[in-house]
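Let's do one together. I've listed all components of the complex below, 1560 residues spread over two lines.
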Amino acid sequence: MKQYLKHDPWLIVEEDFNRNYNEITESVMSLGNGRMGQRGNFEENFSGKTLQGNYIAGVYYPDKTRVGWWKNGYPEYFAKVLNAANWIGININIEYETLDLQTCEVRDFRRVLNMQEGYLERSFVALLKSGKEIQVNAKRFCSIVDDEAGAIRYSLTPLNFDAKITIEPYIDGGIRNRDSNYDETFWDEVRKETGYGEAFIELRTRKTGFHVCTGMCIEIEQDGARIDFQSQPIRQEKYVANRMTLECLQGQETTIYKYAVNLSSLNYDSDSVVSEARKYIQRITGKGFERMLIEQKQAWADKWKMNDITIEGDVAAQQGIRFSIFQLNQTYTGEDERLNIGPKGFTGEKYGGSTYWDTEAYCLPFYLATADQKVSRNLLRYRYKHLEKAIENAQKLGFKAGAALYPMVTMNGEECHNEWEITFEEIHRNGAIAYAIYDYVRYTGDVHYLAEYGLEVLIAISRFWSQRVNWSEAKQQYVMLGVTGPNEYENNVNNNWYTNYLAAWTLRYTTEAVGMVKELDAEKFNELCDRIHFREEKEITTARHIADHIHFPYDENRQVFLQQESFLDKELMPVSDIPKGQRPLNQHWSWDRILRSCFIKQADVLQGIYFFEDEFDPETLQRNFDFYEPMTVHESSLSPCVHSVLASRLGRKEKAYEMYLRTARLDLDDYNNDTEDGCHITSMAGTWLAVVKGFGGFRIKGDQVILDPNCPDNWESLAFKIRFRGALLEIKATQTEVSIQNFSEKNAEVLLYGKSLTVSAKSQQTVKRATGLPIKSRKK
Amino acid sequence: MKQYLKHDPWLIVEEDFNRNYNEITESVMSLGNGRMGQRGNFEENFSGKTLQGNYIAGVYYPDKTRVGWWKNGYPEYFAKVLNAANWIGININIEYETLDLQTCEVRDFRRVLNMQEGYLERSFVALLKSGKEIQVNAKRFCSIVDDEAGAIRYSLTPLNFDAKITIEPYIDGGIRNRDSNYDETFWDEVRKETGYGEAFIELRTRKTGFHVCTGMCIEIEQDGARIDFQSQPIRQEKYVANRMTLECLQGQETTIYKYAVNLSSLNYDSDSVVSEARKYIQRITGKGFERMLIEQKQAWADKWKMNDITIEGDVAAQQGIRFSIFQLNQTYTGEDERLNIGPKGFTGEKYGGSTYWDTEAYCLPFYLATADQKVSRNLLRYRYKHLEKAIENAQKLGFKAGAALYPMVTMNGEECHNEWEITFEEIHRNGAIAYAIYDYVRYTGDVHYLAEYGLEVLIAISRFWSQRVNWSEAKQQYVMLGVTGPNEYENNVNNNWYTNYLAAWTLRYTTEAVGMVKELDAEKFNELCDRIHFREEKEITTARHIADHIHFPYDENRQVFLQQESFLDKELMPVSDIPKGQRPLNQHWSWDRILRSCFIKQADVLQGIYFFEDEFDPETLQRNFDFYEPMTVHESSLSPCVHSVLASRLGRKEKAYEMYLRTARLDLDDYNNDTEDGCHITSMAGTWLAVVKGFGGFRIKGDQVILDPNCPDNWESLAFKIRFRGALLEIKATQTEVSIQNFSEKNAEVLLYGKSLTVSAKSQQTVKRATGLPIKSRKK
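Okay, and this is what the predicted structure of the assembly comes out as:
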């Protein structure tokens, strides 16, 4: 845990340069716009600890799988989003000295990520070995308006000298992934072009053949006025630059504007990426930095208007939730249905930018409540389009007749992960994909999605569950052998309660969905039956039989669900009994010891109760929470959020707050000692869940919004907005009252603390917590 | 399965050159002498399919572990015996044509491994592209008399031409392991020397720093007389040779004698390996090829006198058992207690020449019955010397207080394997090491071994078991969670019957051994207690409590032991139900499917019944055999032998014979399609078990030899020799009678078919099987 970044409601601030933490800061201060992104690297050369990282959504490489001992069924490759050409680079040379913060003294250093307006700025004074002092101010952003472009303003002011300064803005395509299995290069050069103040390089990924043109255009100002300059084009292997030498006087500010674009064959014809990049860059250069920045601020203001959550009285908590919302918005906009949410977004290389069950289980609710319905629909459609591959994947593992197993990790629908206990056994992911369909339909009321796409996916997943269980003669029940639940600290267990529950639930929900679709669009249903050979009666009878006769391990004594069949054979003890210095367990204990222990990496039974909370009474939740939570080490970033939500539901505010901070400030405080690899983007959705579903007590039941706000004691207030079926509501809760603002044109019915409340169109209602009675109602 | 090698009682014969099978033949025709060995490669250049392989016992390299996803506790390296300098090479050039069986026509090819006399010979006529025909006869051996040396006689006869032939005998140290994790080179060159007809190269292994000098000396004969020749020394990187050009006339035989030595720093000072190699080579060259060969034949005759097993009436079975005995003798002589028995011996690189539980569980009985007692004692001492490392290994996994976990795979006592389900969980290996101590003491009566070494190992292993179990509140018994039994087609199971049985047995036997040692040598016992902090009362009480209260899964219904607790939740079906074309399962089914299935890779419950057969009545054996055998796919080479022994015990001769052939001819017929990687040396001990313990019905109970011979119906007779406590007995069984020859100076008491029989010193007894009565007694 590190706490060198300043607490601030809207900014992430590094004051004084923390060399040793630089890779952490780079992760935290990453910029992105859903289409491209980059780590918070320096523009000028830096010889210290750094991971130069630029990433382009959807541009990936199938890196040959690294395996110790091959198991039949392992995939041949692991697809990863590639580190792409560095477009921010501007090398600075002052009379034979290179500006490099590693080798000079640094004064007045400040690096700030402005989350409100969506840019990164940095200022410092460098004291070179020669004694020269130079002031640098840099500002840059990835535009969310022109989402294939970025812009940099980089200013130099000699403080105690006049000199010729050589400036070399460049694009470097000679990058390697730090995360590469066999240390291979993933990019080939196709073409490069240089011109006056501009340069373009076209690279192609090996194997996948994506073309990407990265281009730049340079403008220079001195004393606030645009100047002409001599520019020497530089062309080296996978590298293009313009070199210019400028006379810079003491106290005079020289400003370099660097406009850059990244155009890929995902969106353009391969042959035209360079010419399109030229056009694009002309357009944005024409707009100019200041105009682009104004548009950027405006666009971010619009986003915040919909998404912002305010917490008064607790800056650390406020910063945490805003950071989470900011990064989620930077990572995924929902505009392109081919994309998804990589666990590290554009902040690092680990986990390869691929898609995990995180999307469905943790991220979807955020997009449902804060973005246009088409965004979550696109997330669902992403899996629909991978259905064929999921069926192939199941076939490879011996399943048949249209059964689908969605991959644990994927880029294009094919499985990428190769640990048998996860790849083949952590199959609950399939259930999360089914659950997301239910969650979406429940939230949006868009039952047509079922007819169009959802049911086909549900049937394929149900077919998988039907084949994956087997009848146990011994138990006279169906059993599911050899699985890994969400708690990856148990592997290859039998009858994981969560997985069995999800499976039974999927089978039932599929049956329901069949009914709904038949009623909604019989013709479409018949067409589907024909196409996928759905034998309704037989498959539904089987599904019901399994759902009704599957084994759920249960402890009669404690009246808790058992995480897996043999859980009670373990030595049960609380986390507090683990000797000091032995945590995190995954860094101190051998794998078998972890597996044999009762300690839980992340919510497992509790994840199921969280998903299906309506199906369990509070006493059941409480008993299971009290049984499992003390044994949970939360060594997954996806664990504390679920516990925070459930603790809120149980009215355990302290526990809920503790768990909230752990998820909200995970990266800001480098809680798990791994932020240098990148931020935990998908778990940021968990932060949002902890606030909105947890402290806000927001949920949907039937067609109704339910709210049970319950802030931590140290918060003055919590306010958040939610979209629900065309309505936009803002809920603000203090320790004493709750007000609900309805921005929409029609009345909203909510259930607040269990009581019905109508908030009229365009008006606000305030309710006293103690009495539950409205105290104010105001037309807006 | 391939059947291109001729059936013969003493020879392995390849007639006509089988290019595509060459790597299989090379494995089968490997030569070795316990100190060094090599595959059946060609001397002359060969550009076809070949794995050039030369191996020196004990000279290994710690190859960096290859891992897909790292688990805490994995070892850093996998130690492997290295492919070493090629010393057999003799390149032949005939007027610009290279002799290469890949590029010329081959006539009258014959490659023969003579198991009786311990050499490999080869003859053929090569028809070169130019039309020249040349006859080649080659013979070579690894001397078991001078066990750091080998010798080759290589003769050329031009059949239809006179020509200058260039001959280049060489030593090539530029070899790479085919089995290398990161494609690295493992050898560095230290020195090379060349002289008239001789050359030496000294190489050093990277990291481990073993020095090996490989040297050669050449002599040439024409028309049966030694000739002088011009020799041009060749020195290239890691390569030394002598090149000589000889005038060869049509019909004239030119013979090259190549003497070679491999001296390693395992046995010599690093600085003197070259000078010692010079001396060594002078000595053997002085002896000469013919003399060396006579000594070789004599030494092999001596070995066969002790070890041979004859089977009359079934050449395939005869060849199989001789091949097994031959290869076991080539692999391990027991003379050097630093060495052990690699699963591939000197026949290939796979499994790295390391030590597995195969040694204790399968090989020890062979050496107990056929070799001097010191050989098996050395095998035990090998593990004793690794005890400290085994304790460290257990510590790494969280065990304490002197608990030892022997590694799954090792070269120097450190664990090399990295699959969590095996490395950390296949812990029954620890039991096999305890069992071997019991087996040795029972066989030899050498209880002093317990006092000297055995008890210390037993206590350390028992400490491991005591810590590895935990008390299950649910069961009110001890349980052992998360293990992999001998059947590696189940992983991470709870309460594997075999492992629990072995653990309980070890705890009891350790208690007994404590008693024995206290009685035998109280002083030594006290010294041991002090040294290893053995708290006798406490540890023994705990051991007894665990042994008495450990859970053994059992099916009351079928009255069989359950392989693991959840076995009956599986869908049970016989192997015959597996659809055609889906075997072997490990090549057709994904790993999870294998794990969920009931199919068994190798004996598991049955392995336990085999080890402790006195503790189970025949009905119990029969029920368990009938339950498990039909579900067993025998996809481990260590499986059929145990089933053969047990089937013999049950009087199921057909099943016993089927299983025998599967183990005895595994490599000769390339049963598993993998002999090209090397032969299955440790499973060859299983062949011996199937014959001697199975068909011979040989076992030891108390101080007595028990015999229940029961040959397969198609055998005329079976004869084998056993050593037992100073006695040497030969048992010959036909379908009607059994005769026992006692070669020793004192009478031998045996229990034959349940009846006591005294075979007087130096005499023979023959018993009619039908009556069980002696029919002949003859003083020898």
